[in-house]
Amino acid sequence: xxxxxxxxxxxxxxxxxxxxxxxxxxxxxxLFIAANEDFVHxxxxxxxxxxxxxxxxxxxxxxxxxxERIVLRRDAxxxxxxxxxxxxxxxxxxxxxxxxxxxxxxxYMALSVQHVFSNYNSTFFYIQTHxxxxxxxxxxxxxxxxxxxxxxxxxxxxxAEYFEAYGLSNDLDxxxxxxxxxxxxxxxxxxxxxxxxxxxxYKVLDILREKYRGLNYINxxxxxxxxxxxxxxxxxxxxxxxxxxxDPAEEGLLDREELDYLTGGWFEEYVYYLxxxxxxxxxxxxxxxxxxxxxxxHNNELDVVFIRNNQLFVIECKxxxxxxxxxxxxxxKVCALKEVLLGIDCxxxxxxxxxxxxxxxxxxxQYMNINFLDYDCLTHPEKLKKEFGKMVKIARx
Length: 397
Description:
By secondary structure, the protein is of the alpha/beta class.
């Protein structure tokens, strides 16, 4: 039996979570070290571990008595080396074996933790989530004996685990129903990508998007014929639906989900099927709503989100972007989601059928650390294969 030690870091909770998932064995104890303002993040992490660590004989992997906390009660303590060391030292047991993860918190905190625990029965580790590995190391005077051990992380998180580690509420337990199957999604992509729609078709889509998107349902006959005089008529609606071979679930009606699908949701489903087939993620979802569990609620929807080898990928899907200013707004939205909610292990993308012949839009996105895949990339298999290869490399195969 041993005690697993982690420094609480609200900006990077995945490091502690994966370390425990990899190293925990029945009978082990957990020790968390936190600055005063980070203390509140311990309980959610413990709850997540109790949910996802393997249970034994119906019992949870550990009890509340198996969790210890060392908290620097004054805000200034986290900047004072001696106080950090004294606080930690007063709580340690010379008879205990400690497995210490030095990833987390400030560098100053990590140095203090390493110094104190070096006087006890401690084994030191550093978890590198970007590389998906753990380094086991010995701090001694010899730097030429190559005694560092690199351990690949075998555990693979789900989307639910990732979001909960960051304290994000989500609706993954209410998965979005897909309107189309993979073949239909490819057919819709072909219609748009290969310009098989005419001006009248695009007029139908513009009116649906501007006047009817978000409604619970519309009656196709009423919309076509403007029965009550208050609706914006779409005389070619039935002709359009027949041309694209779209059959509503209920004859004569288009419900909210179908309106969303026709005005851009089809592209999200195409990207979802494409990613699922090519990248084979560990977990993937479409149309997920997340929130930071604060008093101020925001509607943050992730069009397509997946996780592979503990790396989170979020794709904003826009079938059409009319102006450069609209593109800039999308970039800022994606950037804000990444920085405020999704953490340093998140990789953000924008997929769109907008053309970017000069590469200027791609440069704007790159400046904000976002990857932009435009019309040219999505319609040329070799270019798309190259971009997906980069994503596989990020996720370490």
